[in-house]
């Protein structure tokens, strides 16, 4: 059995995420309290009491990262299993870098708060949009986006799984492309409730500013194989990380390609760590032969313990 931990991205958040663990695990509570000390806002209040701020990108990103890191540590403590590879969807890639020890928990929290602020400020509200396209292959989506771009931009932003691609760009261009994609046979085109056209060149200013922040980070050697959204491949060397995280803000997320590469490299069991089950759903649609779990609360942790706990895994 080769186990990968994969980490939630933005959009998976919900009020009260991690609360069951916070109330039942001393170590989980310590990790969240540590995280609370590293950021410039009351993280615990945002997680458990303030849904409005939880859904603002600047607060969303450190909140998801904090909960995901704390759950990752809890899985290792309670189930006595460790990942042999890691990856994360967009924001989740920072959690993967914490797990692989390339980045400290403290550094990651501060970085993603800055990242979230830059991403939300670069494109004013109402200018950009994103929409999920269901039921078309990537070539058709790419062709339509190219056709509908001109003075305004619309491009594929997330290759999530077969038959689901997210497009993003200027609001009017996304609307034009959405209509054209329905004419091309898309089953659905669903507008997403997000604050900006993430993973497009409209975020270049945020990408450039983030690169200046990343220049001061001393990344450590990766201790386990870590895969990146930017090209869907394993990060070969620590020297690549800074450039990949810079590009990641304005580059498409190749999640489907990444999962296929991990499977090709021997991963047969995926554990989605953090809020939500989106990644589990994507992975099951990408390859039904692999085993997929998610851990976000006591019930899902108990299921993982039952299936993969130390006493139940064949040596």
UniProtKB/TrEMBL annotation:
Q: SMART domains from the entry?
A: PKS_AT
Q: State whether keyword Transferase applies.
A: yes
Reaction(s) catalyzed by this protein? holo-[ACP] + malonyl-CoA = malonyl-[ACP] + CoA
Identify the InterPro entries for this entry.
Ac_transferase_dom_sf, Acyl_transferase_dom, Acyl_Trfase/lysoPLipase, Mal-CoA-ACP_Trans/PKS_FabD, Malonyl_CoA-ACP_transAc, Malonyl_CoA-ACP_transAc_FabD, Malonyl_transacylase_ACP-bd
Keywords attached to this entry: Acyltransferase, Transferase
Q: What are this entry's molecular-function GO terms?
A: [acyl-carrier-protein] S-malonyltransferase activity
Say if the entry is tagged with keyword Transport: no
**Domain of life, source organism:** Bacteria
| Active site residues of this protein | 90, 199
Pfam families for the chain? Acyl_transf_1 (PF00698)
Question: Tell me, which GO biological process terms does this entry list?
Answer: fatty acid biosynthetic process
Malonyl-CoA:ACP transacylase (MAT) domain spans which residues? Answer: 6-308
**What Enzyme Commission number(s) does the record list for this chain?**
2.3.1.39
- What does the entry list under GO cellular component? cytosol
Q: What class of enzyme is it?
A: transferase
Q: Which family does it belong to?
A: Belongs to the fabD family.
Report what the protein is called.
Malonyl CoA-acyl carrier protein transacylase
Source organism: Vagococcus silagei
* Lineage of source species: Bacteria, Bacillati, Bacillota, Bacilli, Lactobacillales
What is this protein's gene name?
Answer: fabD
